[in-house]
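Q: Sequence in, structure out?
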Amino acid sequence: MTRDKHAKRGYEVTYQWVMQLLQTCDFEEHAARLGLRCPGRDKAAVDFLGRTYLITKDAVTLTEQRVPWAVGAEGFEYNLKSVLGYYLLSDCAAEPAGDFCPMTHFSHGVFDNRPLSGGSLEAAYKDGEKLGRAGEKLGFTREKPGHWRYTLLPKVPIKIIYYEGDDEYPANIQVLFDKTVIQFYKFEPLAVLHLCFREGLAAVGNPIL
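A: Exactly. Output:
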């Protein structure tokens, strides 16, 4: 069966759905509560991995890139813009609790307890020093060797933990979220945010020439 060339892909449909929800969003109230900048009426600015995106009722647009990187995977930008818009839509008023856990904590059995790893992020950072240098560019706070803290979104702090590999096990990079994140995101968009962060951080380690 051939695909209709005019049919929209799932990530395009999701992005359009988020844009429809933004039509009735009170940008000023939501931006103030969620810690986003509000550069004008019905506008909110959000930072993500050294980039700035402008959210309006018409689109989510990349406006500045202080750290050069790009992900070539199909649909990545649509997915990222969707989860950034979804953040602005949140009705949550919680503050971070400072209690961090892996994605498996939120999955209700969708994933087992093994860390989500072994992909492009580990391939990009074969040693912790390289990850540390990338983190310096992005604003990571080093807590101890191999452990960093980062504000992914204003109310969404995360921890990044680098486990050095050996002859038996490859290196592993684990991303932990503050437990309150599930009040801002349902699990499915949270999983997309997690993947966008991992792929984006991997791209920072393979900069645009």
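The radius of gyration is 17 Å.
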